[in-house]
Specification:
Blueprint lengths: L20 E5 L8 E5 L17 E4 H12 L3 H9 L1 E2 L9 E4 L9 E2 L5 E2 L2 E2 L8 E4 L8 H9 L5 H8 L1
Parallel strand pairs: 6-9
Antiparallel strand pairs: 1-2, 2-9, 3-5, 4-5, 7-8
């Protein structure tokens, strides 16, 4: 279940994150890759991120024109855009590509032993520990697979499969 931000939400260090975090390079995932790390201990079952207006919803039928008008033919920028976005599962949700270019949520990496799930932390998180999720939770519709293949980007489902 997604947690939507309200006027009462405060973001201690990064927009959309409800807990103190920092973004750091994660060379184990490749050059120029980043991850989200706890700035202090976080108890299990803590909501860590809120859905804000920073997440732009793009219907899959408009995705091609969005890419063209924002990135032209710059393949590296297009790949980055696709890598940092996501598709939610479920009827209706799987028709929309979600882009969050201005919040650190885009830096959450996949793990087969994730520290976080859709509803928050799965266990106690230590200060300095990376916040990760299982990408296999996200949607993987054909239009998403096709556009990722077109630009040479692994889908989140492929990343999850390759990590096993």
């Amino acid at each position: 279940m997604l947690f939507e931000a309200t006027d009462e939400c405060t973001f201690p260090t990064e927009p959309a994150f409800l807990v103190p975090v920092e973004v750091k390079k994660t060379l184990q995932y490749g050059e120029d890759h980043y991850g989200v790390f706890a700035s202090e201990p976080i108890p299990a079952q803590t909501k860590i991120w809120a859905w804000t207006d920073r997440v732009k919803k793009i219907h899959h039928t408009a995705l091609g024109s969005h890419i063209k008008s924002n990135f032209g033919d710059d393949k590296k920028l297009i790949q980055l855009f696709l890598r940092q976005g996501f598709v939610l599962p479920g009827e209706g949700n799987d028709q929309v590509f979600n882009s969050n270019p201005t919040d650190a949520g885009r830096f959450m990496n996949h793990s087969n032993s994730p520290t976080c799930g859709p509803d928050g932390t799965l266990r106690d998180i230590q200060k300095g520990e990376e916040l990760t999720m299982d990408y296999s939770f996200h949607g993987n519709p054909k239009w998403y697979r096709d556009i990722c293949e077109r630009y040479g980007v692994l889908t989140e489902a492929e990343i999850a499969r390759n990590a096993k």
